[in-house]
Amino acid sequence: MADRFYLSLWLKDYDDSQMLDRYRTLLETFPFSKLRPRIRGFRIYPLSWSEHPVLEEDFSEEGAEPGYILSLASEFFHGDYAYEASSFWDLWRFQKNGGPGAWKQAPVPVTLSCLGPEFEDGTAERGHLEIDFGPDTPFRADQMLPDAESRIMAREYRERLQENIRKLLGFVHELDKRLPVQRKTLWTESGENFAEMIRQSLK
To answer: Structural domain tally of the chain?
Structure first.
């Protein structure tokens, strides 16, 4: 069964004066989809996720650049706010019709969030920056298996799966280089060990 997974980052010396600069780095590092580029939605939550957003923008038609998103965040800047941008990145997905060439690059939704140090729902549990990658299906070796038994399709399945994993790990590595990361974790809603699942998929 597919499981939703996240990356949480805790940063060194994180405070109000740095939070939007760190968010800028996250947005500028993320490999946005070429098929559905830019940011498609933006929300700002006061105090906790249960509160109604003080700002909610829909950019689904053409998208918005990170610079514009950050200018909106600056207008509503508070240390107890959380900022949430919705976008896409391109991953290999198996098309259920099967057959050669059944793998296609497709835009997959993600959410990129920045939590203020005084946000009530807690950076202690969720980090200062958080990426919601959605279902882990494009990274699991025990899912999406083609029905066909041909060796060519099986090899292509393994190669595409591993390309997705390398893209994920490459993104995490770039964040490590560009941000003062104190601690990070890839985690799932179910509590499954995501790192172990990745290791099994790379075998």
So the answer is: 1
Helix (H) or strand (E) holding 162: helix 151-178
DSSP letters for 106-152: EEEEEEEEEE-TT-TT-HHHH-SEEEEEEESGGG-TTSS--S---HH
Q: Is residue 203 part of a domain?
A: no
Domain span holding position 128: 4-198
CB atoms within 10 A of CB 95: 12
> What's the start-to-end Cα distance of the chain, in Å?
20
> Under a CB-based contact definition with an 8 Å cutoff, are residues 103 and 93 in contact?
yes
As given in the structure block, the two tokens for residue 145 are 């298996």
DSSP 8-state assignment for residue 16: T
pLDDT, tens only, 29-72: 999 999 999 999 999 999 999 999 999 999 998 999 999 999 99
Do strands 41-46 and 181-188 pair parallel, antiparallel, or not at all (unpaired)?
A: unpaired
Q: Tokens 């929300």 — which residue?
A: 43
Phi/psi of residue 169, nearest 5 degrees: -65, -35
Question: Can you tell me the distance from the alpha carbon of 172 to that of 56, in angstroms, rounded to the nearest whole number?
Answer: 28
Q: What is the pLDDT of residues 30-41, one digit of tens each?
A: 999 999 999 999
Q: Each residue of 81-121: pLDDT tens digit?
A: 999 999 999 999 877 665 556 788 999 999 999 999 999 87
